[in-house]
Amino acid sequence: MDDRTTTVGAAPTRAPQLAVWASAARLRTLPASVAPVLIGVVLAYSDGLGHAPAAIAALFGAILIQIGTNYANDYFDFVKGADTAERQGPRRAVQSGLVSPEAMRRATILVFGLAVLVGLYLVWRGGWPIVIVGVASIACGVLYTGGPFPLGYRGLGDVFVLLFFGPVATAGTYWVQALELGWLPILAGLGPGLISTAILAVNNLRDRETDAKAGKRTLAVRLGARFTRIEYTACIVMACLVPASFLAAGIAGPTILLPLATLVVAIPVNHTVWTKTDGPTLNGALADTGRLLMLYAVLFCIGWVLSEA
Predict the structure, then answer these.
(1) Apex 143 CA angle, 137 and 147, nearest 5
(2) Which pTM value belongs to this model?
(3) Which is deepest, 11, 14, 84, 96, by most CB within 10 Å?
(4) Is 135 contained in some domain?
């Protein structure tokens, strides 16, 4: 990158640097793509069916799809007028003039293109099921805020996040390693999917007023702040019920309850979500929820391995 300027509208701005693109990738939310893959890898290895190249490819593919989705959101939210100077969230690259809309559109295509390249190996390894998962993941990443029926603008973003950052990612990771699939990876994927939905809930709670003005009808806009806070708490609690259900069903030993420690760590974050309304504080809660997700995934994996020992 050099120091030449780009133009957004009539306002010249400095050419984007690496930090700008990293910010637009929303690195604090990347645990949403890492956590379900990690669980899928551990489940496969515990069954003696692990496959390192496929696991690594699944991880990189998931991260690229999430970054591509975040770039697409940055672009489409600006085009649709959802990102304005009133927005309380972290700075958006296009809206702030740090990146031109065309540059963000090209970056979105590039990142999704890289995801497709990684996906070619996964398709060779896992066959047509991966084609379906990959195409659906990228399509939903674009259609989350783009296209004639953007999911995020219709209150369907929560469903997309729950499924694709939960059971789809975990089961897909298991499949490309084991080349077979039972119901266990699908059920295990509900945990990270639910906490990823909690991340989205904080995001939508923070942006509720500006989203309403822009016609972005998220669940927070449709059902209000109280519902969104209940959704946040419920997602964290239900995620922790997943490993508890494994113990109750006799699928795993007592160590599978380790992820319940997430409930204790989540107490101050939950309090923030219920009592604060300012953007900077909720931004911190969003980042903290991302860390809760990684904690949950790591504890789940440790608990599962110990219960299988």
Answers:
(1) 150
(2) 0.88
(3) 96
(4) yes
